[in-house]
Design goal:
about 0% strand
Amino acid sequence: MILLIAFLITVVVMTALWFWQRRSGRADWVDAFWAGSIGMLAIFYAIFGDGAIEKRIIVAVVAGSWSLRLTYHLAVRLAGHSDEDGRYQSMRSHWGDRANFWLFIFFMGQALIAWLFSLPAWVVANDPSSNMTLWVVLGVVVWLLSLGGESIADRQLARFRQDPANKGKVCQLGLWRYSRHPNYFFEWLHWLSYPLIALGAPYQWLTWLGPVLMLLFLYRVTGIPYTEKQSLKSRGDAYREYQRTTSAFFPWPPKA
């Protein structure tokens, strides 16, 4: 029942956002609401879950902090632009007069995906074991590494872009020297914390939905393919050389 209620909450949030985008013309805010919805559901599970209080506190902190950081980061970026993100402008152009109908379908898809990504938190929140095993500690360490790494990568990129002298150049500072998408890597790493924290819990296999689905989305759907296409368009040969020398995802020393 709690999972059904969680799904309905997400549907209501995304439906309200869809109505708002019809007036504002800013469907791109769905990105921030998607991230926020996962954290909201995780806290919902932590409050109403049947698991040990220790696990419920852990999942509220782990998922809540990840969601808060990503939602804030996306909201600041979106608020800094008066125009809708190019991806959503392309969607509207492609769908034409039926754009609002297909955007509603898209928003409902985002609700479903957010709900699926919340399932690892549901598993942890319903884990009856209060034992703080080595696996739980390792999961918390992975969460800390992912949170810190993604925050550092975002700050390094923001600092690079703030310098007018870097316009049209490729960021290769800090973590960006070892991966073309270190922010995506640490985003994916976050989802590995749940299988570790929930090791031995009922329905533990559901926690693997996070890392598997996120890797699929980042590699094949909304992450790397779109970002690389835009970077090649704006930076040309400089980015092609960056592609040749630097790992796409996993941090690794660059080629000579």
